[in-house]
Design brief:
The complex is a heterodimer. Chain A is mainly α. In chain A, α1 runs antiparallel to α2, α3 packs antiparallel against α4 and α4 packs antiparallel against α6. Chain A starts with a helix and ends in a 12-residue tail after the last helix. In chain A, 66% of the residues lie in helices and 0% in strands. By secondary structure, chain B is an all-alpha fold. Chain B is 74% helix and 1% strand. Chain B contains 23 helices and two strands. In chain B, β1 and β2 form a beta hairpin. In chain B, α2 packs parallel to α4 and α9 runs antiparallel to α18. The chains are: A mainly alpha, B mainly alpha.
């Protein structure tokens, strides 16, 4: 028995549908919904059941049917870089409130470029500082959107 | 109707209308040209911009982006054999061989003329078909709408690639399930909020669209092995002109492909990709002798057919969106979400309640097609240079614009964490070869599906007989069943085949 992409996908969806179903059955029935045909939990329950049936069908199919050809695997470097970019996005979100838009975005762009392998100082400067400043000017001056300066400074 | 048309025309021809359609076409062309980024990403990235402007202009801008992205996709198909979107894959069959022969200019010019003709002819069809369909759909009940939505959802699964049927169904279901998060609008009960106040309002459509398209497509680009870098575009453009004989040769092809493309575009779930492949196959079958042999080697007919059909299909897909409020494709699903965010109710009443938006979109299509022809064509050699834009910068900028686009609408950092979560999820799903468009379609239609179902059940006094009581509902239900059963039977028939060696090589 081999683990194929189709099987992993179907299995993950089966687990998700089961978890969704467990929560669907816990949706409280409000007093106003007593005795009505369709309550807040009716369709989620149906979706969960259909989800389980479809994933079981896909799972069964993946054992009996010719599996799809595998796509080229990703290198460890690419995987690490993607993971670091995701971490950087979380850090950006964390920095946005305390540092403010200008500084947090500047740090995000610079760190992102460096992560992606861009080290030329000129490119780093021109692709970050003007982008952030112009974007900030458009948002605050032209569109009148208020961007808080950052809780650390105020 | 005439009054509405004039209102739309005045909006489309106002300086703001022209400016937005020009901006949309240019931005769309630029984004569509970048391999891996398609019209959905382009439109998703533009949504935060459109929130601050009038709905008519917002829709004009998005329609421009849609056309531009399809056109941009053709440019990268022709120049570097890297279709930016699935709808322009067929364009590369003959477009790229033409470019390699040193006739890139001619190929691009023909693509522009074909797109222009297909888009314009389809806009005329749309102008006739949309009001008629809107009038008919005014007699639709909740039951019919429910059945129509089921049909829209089953159609996208039915039209998915062979072997992808169940995956498309799973993704549609996932989208519908995600749409149930938050306070139930009918009863006020909390569903799947896990006690978090940030989830009470549900998950925003913009957040889902940005995460699963813009963010994850940019990150997928990083995940792809470096060896697959796109080749640099050829610097030799060649002559942009077409001879009279060549025009005479492709004119009937453009006519046929426009009609075919428009009709396929109307069908929910079919869209530009199927239209372009069908038009290509039709023309290849119609061609005789030497002309047939040229297909795949740089045939002008082979280039004109898919190019015309994909633009005509894009226009056609606006018919169900504007008249029934049901998106026919992932791209129109994103647009539907934007319309709802504006506070507009897409559907048959849109033409009566908001004729300015309805007609402005249709009228702007003419302007958009002219802009594509006259603005983009001379700029192609310059725009093509953007293909050489460093990937590191582009990826980080897309990540930034996606995150900040969502943040500027909600000003809630919780949404950004959720975005990262969705990006990880869609990256995993992409790696497992799951299609993403059905997810957004399910997400958009999920809420409407539920509210129409509940309304229909209430009217029918709790009986599901409403599905077959009226002939119209019955017809739509039967079509939905057929759309679901045919690929399912196909799938089950496939099960009887023994597993081949391919499976042995597919272990991880």
């Amino acid at each position: 028995m081999f683990i194929t992409k189709d099987r992993i996908g179907a299995f993950l969806f089966l687990v998700f549908s089961c978890a969704y179903g467990v929560y669907a059955w816990q949706i409280p029935l409000l007093p106003t919904e007593q005795g009505i045909a369709v309550s807040a939990s009716t369709l989620p329950k149906i979706y969960a059941v259909v989800g389980v049936v479809v994933s079981l069908l896909a799972l069964a199919g993946s054992f009996l049917q010719q599996a799809a050809r595998p796509q080229g695997g990703s290198g460890a470097l690419a995987l690490g870089r993607t993971a670091l970019l995701l971490v950087l996005m979380v850090l950006y979100t964390l920095m946005l409130d305390p540092l403010g838009f200008l500084l947090a975005t500047e740090v995000f762009l610079l760190a992102g470029y460096l992560l992606m392998g861009e080290y030329r100082p000129k490119v780093l400067f021109w692709a970050s500082v003007p982008v952030v400043v112009v974007f900030w000017l458009i948002m605050t001056r032209v569109l009148g959107i208020y961007l808080a300066p950052g809780t650390l400074w105020s | 109707m005439m009054e509405g048309m004039l209102t739309g025309l005045s909006a489309a021809l106002s300086w703001q209308g022209i400016l937005y359609v020009m901006m949309g076409c240019l931005v769309g062309t630029f984004i569509g040209m970048l391999p891996g980024l398609g019209p959905i990403t382009a439109i998703a990235l533009m949504i935060p911009v459109t929130y601050s402007i009038d709905p008519s202009y917002g829709m004009i801008l998005m329609a421009g982006v849609y056309y531009g992205a399809i056109f941009g996709g053709s440019t990268s198909s022709i120049l570097i054999n890297a279709p930016g979107v699935a709808g322009t894959v067929a364009t590369s069959f003959d477009g790229y061989p033409l470019a390699r022969k040193g006739q890139a200019g001619k190929a691009l010019a023909l693509a522009a003329y074909a797109s222009f003709s297909g888009g314009t002819l389809a806009a005329v069809f749309l102008m006739v078909a949309a009001p008629l369909l809107a009038k008919v759909s005014l007699s639709f009940w909740s039951a019919d709408y429910f059945a129509l939505m089921v049909m829209g959802l089953t159609a996208i699964a039915a039209f998915s690639n062979r072997g992808q049927f169940l995956k498309a169904v799973m993704m549609t279901l996932l989208g519908i399930m995600l749409a149930t998060v938050g306070i139930d609008p009918s009863s006020g009960a909390e569903r799947f909020t896990f006690g978090s106040s940030d989830l009470l309002d549900g998950i925003s459509f913009l957040l889902v669209a940005m995460s699963i398209f813009a963010l994850s497509e940019a990150l997928s680009g990083v995940l792809r092995p470096d060896g697959k870098k796109a080749p640099a575009p050829s610097s030799k453009m060649g002559d942009l002109r077409l001879s009279r004989e060549e025009i005479r040769d492709v004119a009937p092809v453009i006519g046929r492909s426009s009609i075919l493309g428009f009709l396929i575009g109307i069908l929910p779930g079919a869209g530009a990709t199927i239209a372009s492949f069908l038009a290509y196959a039709t023309e290849r079958n119609l061609a005789r002798g030497e002309k047939k042999k040229q297909f795949g080697q740089g045939s002008l007919r082979g280039l004109a057919a898919p190019e015309t059909a994909n633009n005509a299909a894009c226009t056609g897909s606006f018919v169900p969106l504007l008249t029934l409020g049901i998106p026919g494709s992932g791209t129109t699903a994103v647009m539907l979400g934007a319309l709802i965010a504006y506070g507009l109710q897409p559907g048959p009443l849109l033409m009566h309640d908001n004729p300015d938006v309805f007609w402005a979109v249709i009228m702007s299509m003419y302007v958009g097609n002219v802009v594509l022809l006259f603005l983009n064509l001379p700029m192609i050699p310059y725009i093509a240079k953007t293909l050489a834009l460093p990937k590191p910068l582009l990826t980080v900028l897309i990540l930034f614009f996606s995150l900040i686009g969502v943040y500027l609408v909600s000003f809630n950092t919780f949404d950004l964490y959720l975005m990262v979560g969705f990006a990880v999820l869609s990256l995993i799903l992409r790696q497992l070869n799951f299609p993403m468009a059905p997810l957004i379609l399910g997400f958009i239609l999920g809420g409407m599906l539920e509210s129409n179902f509940r309304r229909a059940m209430m009217i029918a006094d709790g009986s599901i007989a409403f599905l077959w009581e009226r002939p119209l509902t019955l017809c739509i239900t039967l079509v939905s069943l057929a759309l679901l059963l045919v690929p399912l039977m196909d799938f089950l028939r496939g099960l009887k085949r023994p597993a081949s060696e391919a499976e042995l090589s597919d272990n991880l």
